[in-house]
Amino acid sequence: MLKQSQMLIPTLREVPADAEIASHKLLLRAGMARQLASGIYTYLPLALRTLHKIQAIVREEMNNAGGQELLMPAMQPAELWHQTGRWDVYGPELVRLRDRHDRSFALGPTHEEVITSLVRDEINSYKKLPINLYQIQTKFRDEVRPRFGLIRCREFIMKDAYSFDTTQEGLDRNFQAMYDAYTNIFTRVGLNFRAVEADAGAIGGKGTYEFMALCDIGEDTIAYSEEGDFAANLEKAEVVYQPAAKPATETPAPEKLHTPGVKTIEQLTKALQIEAKQIVKSLLYKVDDKLVMVLVRGDHELNEVKLKNLYDASIVGLATEADILSVTGAPAGFVGPVGLDSEKVEIIADNNVQDVFDGVVGANETDYHIQHVQPGRDYTVSRYADLRNITEEDVCPRTGGAIKFARGVEVGHVFKLGTKYSTALGATFLDENGRSQPMIMGCYGIGVSRTIAAVIEQNNDENGIIWPVAVAPFHVHVIPVNVKVEEQRQTSEQITEVLRKAGVEVLFDDRPERAGVKFKDADLIGLPLRITVSDKAAEEGTVEIRVRKTGETVHVKLDEIASEVKALLARVDRTGAELFGV
């Protein structure tokens, strides 16, 4: 019997000062987690129970989809990362260290290199493929700004799976199996989520989807259409270019304007009394080792992921002030495409820039801009492409319908890696004709610990957490109004034992606290059902059951307690019927 007096559940009355969002506040207040260092948390008993339940759901669905579980080392030799080229390009998020023999290692943020080297050494024939291997393990990423509790940590728990196939069709089948498994997982844990098209980022590969838990605090923006199934991360969402009609009148000749101290789009619109869409922003970027000037309309935002993908680049970032001055002769805020030396810098532009027929650009001279500028006539663009973020003024690339935005937290990601890692690490197999071929890979990750925070973020009220049945630390909270009254204590213990034998997990609050204190803690912890044992248990043979999610209360006879509890759990949560067979 799990008695609350004997468990480590250090609830807090006050909201911790450093907690910004609901899930972070509630994880701390409900005694579920404690911070050891920035972005590094201890999972206390309640949180660990939920973590184990999420892991069990993940394992069941992964195994059903053909996955095999293993466990790989967190400490990875640098040589593997050098072979794939990621040691230098992954960035400062990679936790690097040296052992006593001065050998370089990384604490794994992900395991593409390790799993590929393992399969390379153990499998060499098409007869042993396909295979899908997964693990649930602690990962490490030295985030520049850990925040939001378990949403963005430096140490976190992740499920990562890797498939190896002989054909693209085989990869497609494995990918679909993982997509379906993820849909089942996030449905079962009680999340409101959406799968969205996404960019693969540092992991690489094509054909990727993020599984987003929808919530206002999400760090990612999702563009979607209500008229179809289109949904994409902002960095991935395609913009449909709709050419504007060319004006009937000729654009006047360019005119140089004195604009002292006027650098930003907002300052220009006020100073010149024009709209932002009449301005062309000129942004100088370093794309690997190449300097590129990127032009976007003043009311649009450059999408750096699209720029990186256009060049298939490893590193993309704004040019230094020194580079800007050397190429343009002016500081940022006054640079533009007119008169630039194409030998020094390539000029590219977002598709919509070609419709700015009478625009304003920087003059490449401090405190000056040029108006009445037209692309093709006054400056040359080497190529146009989709380089900006989609807006709610754009149309859906699938249906042509309206675009809307939502916020989301990424809880899962599925990638089609192809042969990026197998080629780099020599993971090959002999096909039916005895020819050596690179294995075709997929990669599939779930933020297991982040999922706890996402569930809380979607399931809470002003009093505390409201756990879905499938991942609640316990199903029922049994609370005697006065534990010192022998009849109440004995009845509470009997209820706890009856429910335990019926497969219901119970937390028995045996603390000698006032009833109001215990009720507040119960709401804060947020178990699906609360059973209050009062004098009515002895007088009438009944107890009160309160549903945390709805506030509904019912009075139940003691001899019907097990069946009524199971029925209530099944009714208040879609996973309850599966768990209790009701």
Automatic annotation (TrEMBL):
Domain of life: Bacteria
Keywords from the named record: Aminoacyl-tRNA synthetase, ATP-binding, Cytoplasm, Ligase, Nucleotide-binding, Protein biosynthesis
GO annotation terms (biological process): prolyl-tRNA aminoacylation
Keyword hit for NAD: no
Domain notes: Consists of three domains: the N-terminal catalytic domain, the editing domain and the C-terminal anticodon-binding domain.
Oligomeric and partner information: Homodimer.
HAMAP family associated with the record: Pro_tRNA_synth_type1
The protein's name: Proline--tRNA ligase
Organism of this sequence: Brevibacillus nitrificans
Gene expressing this chain: proS
